[in-house]
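Hi again,

Forgot to attach this to my earlier email, sorry! This is the prediction with KG4 bound. I've pasted everything inline since the attachment limit keeps bouncing my files.
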Amino acid sequence: MRILGIETSCDETAVAVIEAANPPAWGKEIKILSNVVSSQVKLHAKYGGVVPSLAAREHVKNIRHVFKLGLKEAKIKNFGKEIDYIAVTRGPGLGPSLLIGLTFARALAWKYDKQLIGVSHLEGHIYSNWLSPSQEISKNNIFPVLNLIVSGGHTELVLMKGHGKYKVIGETLDDAVGEAFDKVARLLGLGYPGGPAISKTAEKGNPGAYPLPSPMIRSKNYNFSYSGLKTAALYLLRDLNIKKPSPKIAADVAASFQKAAIDVLVVKTVKAAQEYKVKSVFLSGGVSANKELRKRLTEETKKIAVKYSQPEIEYTGDNAAMIAAAGYFSSKNKKARDLSWDKIEMDANLGF
Ligand code: KG4
Ligand code: ZN
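Structure tokens for the complex follow:
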């Protein structure tokens, strides 16, 4: 069957078509026929972050074109005949942005008489791992999975006992880790989005140059906190008494910050993986593009003999192929009522 995915929860307008076995099966069967992402990053960069009203306006401008490209790339000529389901992000995210994708999807489902699957953006990130599963995890014996979801809005540890069966065991109490990368990049004058800029700058720096805190690293629970680390970076730059850091200082601060931010993610993930006796650890979300985090988790999960998966770089950021994949695996659990275009609702704070 073929599923059309639509994603507009933040500042990316995205449409994808995937093809997969019917009924849903494990592993390599997912074929990505198209995956079109139109990013608004340049527009928001001058404000140092996403401006919700501007983001929604851009989605309105772009969605029809992105949709047409998504169909063209997938060589879909007859939408009514060739597409089986539509999957759309219904939350969490920015309300005005979510509404554009959701309204577009509802109109399509109504016009073509298709079932509509409302998908959680976070579930989408988890399923980015299913878009290109490694040999090891393409076998069925992976549950329970511990998911570390790290993005601009979330930092979560989610236990997954099977498809659609989730339990949140830890989350951030304040800022998300991606948000901390963005804010510290801004302090260093590295621009927006901060994650890629910090990790690139950090490559030339010494992670031991400045001792920055890894908040809650020794707490007894699996929650996170990133606002203190961001403030510590601010005070560090103030104490160094420099307005514009030299490339050497910027690299050292970026590397020290990145180490502090990642240490706590790795320590808590490994601890939770052992306590909950999981078979696998899956990384996902925009921050999963971070090379250092990928390297550390690959090494640490090997040490505790737990299977490990991380999405291919092209599927780490927001995209619609992951939304279609999440829709694919949840379609069989949904009642017909939940798949009707006029019943689906936007929820900006949707949880698991
Ligand atoms: O999942 P995503 O694309 O959007 C949200 O759902 O939030 O995540 C975006 C976040 C941003 O904060 C961005 O700075 C961060 O992911 N990010 C990175 C890297 N690439 C993107 N953070 C650290 N290292 C990276 N290489
Ligand atoms: Zn995301």
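Residues 70 and 312 are 20 Å apart (CA to CA). The mean pLDDT is 94.

That should be everything now.

G.
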